[in-house]
Design a protein that fits this description.
Four copies of one chain form a homotetramer.
Chain A lengths: L1 E12 H5 L6 H7 L12 E5 L8 E5 L7 H7 L3 E10 L14 E3 L2 E9 L2 H10 L3 H4 L7 H11 L6 H18 L6 E8 L4 E7 L8 E3 L2 H7 L4 H4 L6 E4 L10 E3 L4 E5 L5 E4 L6
Helix pairs in contact in A: 6-7
Protein name (chains A, B, C, D): Glutamine amidotransferase
EC number (chains A, B, C, D): 3.5.1.118
Keywords (chains A, B, C, D): Glutamine amidotransferase, Hydrolase, Transferase
Chain lengths: 277, 277, 277, 277
């Protein structure tokens, strides 16, 4: 599948998160430990919010992240207070820029690890459920992008947890109608540039791994020697497919069937249940 | 738009047709004379039939043809009796491999120059008209590939002229329903590996240019000095978006609203009229 | 050959210079007017200085600039007070990232339009003249990068005009020894992040075009309606291979055999003569 | 490092060797078992001899082999009696087409797994030892290509084992002069289209793995059920970095410090010792 990382906190040089940690996302592109595949070399993407526009920049390319110099250049020179990074292991759809995460719609970004089971069998029916106006904006052929546009159709911009739950409910109903026992497997991150939501769910209740970082304050006291922690602000939060290194005390598993939101008014987690469609 | 070339005849090294003529297709990628755009640098494709399988090989890439070494290597070492080559100038959809021509389905290949007018407005409705089983095979986001799958839906494998006419009729009906005056502009080549059909049509009756080559026998007597003519068999036929060089007597315009078929039992041309959908 | 653009001034969104002007550099990638080639589609590069490091970021890719989404994303989200942009038309060497401009060494950047005549004949001898320590850093196969490393060998970091003059002198001597009448054709931009030098020279005294922008203050009074001028600071200066649009009064040709420097202590121009090697 | 494969025998569809075996070279691009790296995703190359020219076709690209559709298309449609395939894991030099193997010079092809130790320190001196006429043809920045041009300088076209031994001797002498204990690590394949030589050597006498296939006749009797063996001719020979699957009896290690030649007059092996330079 894939690996991803979402950061929210004080502005930080992307490099400090993307490249410097021991088991960084870039390292995971070659040597993922907890994914279905150890290699995530089928493209990558980086999306970040700056200070001058509310729309994020999204840079995506089709080669492996580990050898991509442009990614390294950007990471070494761009600072952001909210960014997504994703490395892809294709589950069958083409290796092309429009299939790389994150996907963007207006000020929103979406990225995904997982799959809609037997996607080719349900793709057309799910595509028909997308709002016709939104349908025009679909550029690629992945299940992930389609999930985004279904969530947008179901009101993502107003109520993300509800919209994602309705999307999941639709995917499950259509899958079941096609005799697919476990239609959905997902860890999703979505943001509007202010708040960041992360979802962990699968029909089988055996979801891909997802972790959030411990409060930076706590971490710094545990690991006073680590440079990249010193650069992180107190309220900084990382959500990752798998831990960036083996830092004791640093990473907490997001429970099964749960979503969390990182926001100025305080982070919180809640249960996640698809809304039957 | 784009430029394309289709060859049918005795097996020939692709290079002799693709690179050697004075105003070759590769030259047209930089300096097209009759197209809407002089530069066709948004990807290319090459499809050829060999002697061991009935399915053609299709090689496509996203950079300009003029600098692509792999294309040159293949053209310099592969011989074929029936091949398509296409250079793309995107009319808006992504520059990605799955948007490059020719498109293939089973033993069939399809390539196109032109556009469905205001494609984004009619794309969803046209996509819905594709046979659900065929829909699964659509990989890219172009109007050209969608036209192919509509034609397949309408029986391309049984009666190409009829299927293309029904496709054109549907595109025109849907376009007109959206208030689009001239919905379709196309020159299309399609083949099953045995016969080769070419269509020139536009709703406005102002279609992109299309030419077929004069009988090789005649050409050779006109131009006894030209090497690439000596390598071509008597029955060889080229259909091209614009002439390969200024060879007097070599190229004949396909008339407006016309299709032609190149086949063992003798080539012929006929009028083309969309079948109202 | 190529086209390039260098900006120095108050921090500005790159997009305002790269994409918005009528005949922007991106437009020139498809439709250059004053170059040897109208198409500059063999790769591109962008180098910019940020606020947190003295080393510039350099992003380069091998496809045409006109269709590159990542370039557009970066340009739409990155601000800089000093940046280079380059679009390439290969004069024969490979289309690959390491042959794209700008080239970087430490805090220095270099870009070039032109050619060393019959480069293959003199390449080895010129390469031998590069300082062995610097030689290790050469990654590509262009004349442009080799010129950069020769200039570095000759003291670019201490005295750029002198070092470039010695480089030019060496190229001319070696060329003449090989019977090449006019060994060098160049417009070069080079910067250390503080000052920006631009050189226009050719052995034949028929150099590629080079222009610098009129004082912004003057321009704004001439063209009060132009948005991108309002975003530029008074001291902002553009140096370009060809004018960005037909703005009357905006562009001044750099004279033959001349170099200029843009710097805080005041811009100035001076004659350029190679130092015989 | 890398993995490679060389085939010599009756003409065969490349696909049968490249993709169909259980642990094919394509599978090794993701899951190599005996290499230093398990992932070989930094480009690939394919070179084959056809029936109409003595110069081989060489197709190379920079993405991973495992997801490259063009490679699959070519492999599925091209037959050859002698071909090389290579998947790359960069040891530091750029991921670019000109750094992908095989390298070609006239009718000769060369590919390599291994490295010149501390290449950056000896690169310039080794480059100077290349015949100036040949030097012009070097396009990339790898140690592998430089080894090829050194071997050409030392008479590869007349006596391959002698030329490779002299190249190895030079690399060792220059390395030792720079205080490098074990300057060379290599498995090399080289061919002129008629004969195929393979070398296994390292200064440390701990060379990368290299295997040759058992006589096909013998293999077929051992494994009468295997389709790809039925398609291979009696005299067919494969030389591979690591076995294609676990077929008992199929693969024989090339001994340390040994080279072999596959040729019409009978294959043979002999010891390999660098010629002191």
């Amino acid at each position: 599948m894939c690996r991803w990382l979402a950061y929210s906190g004080a502005p930080i040089l992307l490099d400090g998160i993307l490249y410097k940690p021991a088991h960084s996302l870039i390292d995971q592109s070659l040597h993922a430990k907890m994914g279905v595949e150890t290699t995530n070399g089928d493209g990558f993407g980086l999306g970040w919010y700056g200070t001058h526009t509310i729309t994020p920049a999204v840079v995506r390319d089709i080669g492996p992240a580990w050898s991509n110099r442009n990614l390294q250049e950007i990471a070494g020179h761009v600072r952001s207070s909210l960014f997504f990074a994703h490395i892809r292991a294709s589950t069958g759809t083409s290796v092309q820029q429009t299939n790389c995460h994150p996907f963007r719609h207006g000020r929103w970004m979406w990225m995904h690890n997982g799959a809609i089971a037997e996607f080719h069998r349900v793709r057309r029916e799910l595509a028909l459920a997308v709002d016709p106006e939104l349908y025009l904006a679909i550029e690629g052929s992945t299940d992930s992008e389609l999930m985004f546009y279904l969530a947008l159709t179901f009101g993502l911009e107003e109520d993300p947890p509800e919209a994602v739950a309705r999307m999941a409910g639709l995917v499950e109903r259509v899958g079941h109608e096609h005799g697919i026992e476990f239609p959905l497997q997902m860890t999703v991150a979505v943001t509007d540039g202010q708040r960041l939501w992360a979802f962990r769910y699968s029909s089988q209740r055996a979801s891909r791994s997802l972790f959030y970082s411990t409060r930076v304050e706590t971490l710094r006291s545990l690991h006073p020697d680590l440079e990249f922690l010193r650069e992180m602000s107190d309220e900084a939060r990382l959500i990752v497919s798998e831990p960036l290194g083996n830092l004791p005390g640093a990473w907490n598993a997001v429970p099964e069937s749960t979503y969390g939101v990182v926001q100025p008014e305080g982070d919180r987690m809640d249960g996640f249940t698809p809304v039957p469609a």
